[in-house]
């Protein structure tokens, strides 16, 4: 049995990489440009953060249906839902699922607001539609916060913009990290710093 030796090509040896001269590239690769289908597939993979075509197709279908589209050819809803999911820039599967949910919730909320704006309705019908939209928009805001928290891994950041140090005062310049709330032996509050 013959063992094949596999090596990873250096970055400069890859087609199109910096440092690779035109003569280093095969003739077929130097003239090849990505096709429209290749670019579309790349955009599709970015939108749904997956290379699994079944999962991506189903997520796209869910987003389109939630946006009011129909399984038959509905380019407006299909394009809108895809662009909306893509604009959220999902980085992994969980973010892709949340992005599809967010598009659905937002679309439905806008639908209820449009229904509420139709003239000739009773006050009760307007109130019903606006209440539904309100609940959905609150859900959307919670989804935005969940996405922010997930992306920041639960870390909180605080930026201090203005600091005034008066005569006789002291200031710390540089990165400051918070101490644990568990006080160890010898900790007496701020006096032990």
Radius of gyration: 27 Å
Based on secondary structure, the structural category is mainly alpha
* Poorly predicted spans: 1-30
Helix-strand string? HHHHHH
Secondary structure: number of strands = 0
Number of helices: 6
Summarize model confidence as the mean pLDDT.
Answer: 76
Q: How much strand? A: under 5%
Shape: flat
What fraction, in percent, of the residue positions are helical? 40-55%
Give a written overview of the molecule.
It is a single chain. This protein is mostly helical and 193 residues long. It has a domain at 35-151. Helices cover 51% and strands 0% of the residues. It is built from six helices and no strands. The chain has helices spanning 27-31, 36-48, 53-66, 75-87, 93-116, 123-151. The model is unreliable at 1-30 (pLDDT under 50).
